[in-house]
């Protein structure tokens, strides 16, 4: 009877836990969508009732109509912005992880690099953007380099914190088993630091997009940043807002790819540990 009772209780608990996860998942989707709908509805109502000119603030409906009607132009400008942002992010990710490894494994490098990285971060980077144009020209190289310049810092800080937060007892156990440094890194340090690495990567991917857009503001013949500046100079607010909407979609796409990579990495290391 005890076994039957336990089985019944377990059977009652599992569906309720599954239902709770389903409700939590729906809340995480419906709440942001609901808030966005309320904001857009209030925006549309304000523009309509207040009779606001489109040059000052176009309505969400007019912006959506423009996106549907001229999606080809918006897509043409979105492609270089997205590709350059992805390239800048990947370079920043590699550079940040490499610097974090150097800082973690070398005390001299930690004492020499870490304070300078903090000082480096305090530099007003927007003021340095024109210098990248002078150094690297008006092509995509300057925009990608500036994107890396902005985006690599959170990766370095987060990854270093992840490498240094590994359980000391686990490290002592690995050394007692005569594990090499490479084995310790691949089996202990790197898997333990993954949450920190992806936290820094999620910040870096947004900063990489900002870096590319700033570069396109200064000098570019294509890209969403160029389109925004061009439309703003002609007081075409509808086009500017449409470009910003597409830019947000591109940013969400890149952010989603980082989140997907995090999910795959977590599943790989969790299955590998079993």
UniProtKB/TrEMBL annotation:
SUPFAM superfamilies: MetI-like. One of its GO terms (biological process) is transmembrane transport. The chain crosses the membrane at residues 29-49, 86-105, 117-138, 144-166, 203-229, 241-261. Keywords: Cell membrane, Membrane, Transmembrane, Transmembrane helix, Transport. PROSITE patterns: ABC_TM1. Residues 78-258 form the ABC transmembrane type-1 domain. It is found in: Cell membrane. Pfam families: BPD_transp_1 (PF00528). It is a multi-pass membrane protein. One of its GO terms (cellular component) is plasma membrane. InterPro entries: MetI-like, MetI-like_sf. It comes from the Bacteria. Belongs to the binding-protein-dependent transport system permease family. This is ABC transporter permease. The lineage of its organism: Bacteria, Pseudomonadati, Pseudomonadota, Alphaproteobacteria, Hyphomicrobiales.
């Amino acid at each position: 009877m005890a076994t039957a009772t336990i089985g019944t209780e377990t059977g009652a608990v599992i569906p309720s836990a599954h239902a709770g996860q389903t409700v939590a998942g729906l809340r995480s989707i419906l709440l942001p969508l609901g808030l966005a709908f309320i904001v857009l509805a209030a925006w549309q109502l304000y523009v309509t009732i207040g009779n606001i000119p489109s040059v000052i603030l176009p309505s969400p409906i007019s912006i959506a109509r423009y996106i549907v009607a001229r999606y080809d132009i918006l897509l043409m400008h979105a492609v270089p912005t997205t590709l350059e942002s992805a390239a800048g992010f990947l370079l920043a990710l590699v550079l940040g992880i490499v610097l974090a490894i150097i800082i973690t494994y070398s005390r001299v490098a930690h004492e020499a690099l870490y304070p300078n990285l903090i000082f480096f971060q305090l530099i007003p980077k927007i003021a340095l953007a024109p210098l990248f144009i002078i150094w690297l020209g008006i092509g995509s190289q300057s925009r990608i380099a500036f994107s890396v310049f902005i985006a690599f810092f959170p990766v370095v800080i987060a990854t270093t914190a992840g490498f240094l937060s590994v359980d000391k007892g686990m490290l002592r156990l690995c050394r007692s088993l005569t594990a090499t440094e490479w084995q310790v890194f691949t089996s202990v340090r790197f898997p333990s630091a993954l949450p920190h690495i992806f936290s820094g990567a999620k910040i870096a991917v947004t900063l990489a997009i900002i870096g590319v857009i700033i570069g396109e503001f200064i000098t570019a013949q294509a890209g969403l940043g160029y389109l925004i500046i061009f439309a703003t100079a002609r007081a075409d607010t509808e086009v500017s807002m449409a470009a910003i909407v597409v830019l947000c979609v591109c940013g969400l796409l890149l952010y989603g790819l980082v989140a997907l990579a995090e999910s795959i990495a977590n599943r790989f290391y969790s299955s590998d540990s079993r």
